[in-house]
Amino acid sequence: MFTSIIGVLYDGFAYGMLLFVLSVGLSVTLGMMNFVNLAHCAFAMLGGYVTVSLINLAGWPFLATLPLAFLAAAAASVVLERALYRNLYGKSDLDQCLLTIGIVFVAVAGAAYIFGTLQQPIKVPEWLRGTWVVGNFTFGVYRAFLIVTGLVLAAVLILMLEYTRFGATVRAAVDNQRMARGLGVDVDRVFMLTFALGSGLAGLGGALAIEIVGLDHNFALTYLIYVLIVVSVGGMGSIWGSFAAATVLGISDMAGKYWVPQIGSFLIYLVMVGILMWRPLGLFGKR
Amino acid sequence: MNASALPGPATNLQTWIAARAKWHPAEIVFWLGCLLPLLPASLLPGFLQKYWIFDSYLQLLSQIAITALFAISLDLILGYAGVVSLGHAAFFGLGAYAAGLIAKFWFTDPLLGLACAALLSGAIGFLASFVVLRFHGLALIMITLGLGQLLAEGANSATWLTGGADGLQGIRAGKIFGTVEFDIFGQTAYIYALMVAFLLFLLSRRITNSPFGLSLQGIRDNSRRMLAIGAPNQWHLRKVFTISAAMAGIAGALLTQTTQTCSLETLTFQRSADVLVILILGGVGRLYGAIAGTIIYMIARDFFSDVNPQFWYFWIGLLLIGVVSYMPNGLLGGLNWLLLKWRRA
Question: I need a surface site. Which of A99, B37, B119, B189 has the fewest CB within 10 A?
Answer without folding.
Answer: B119
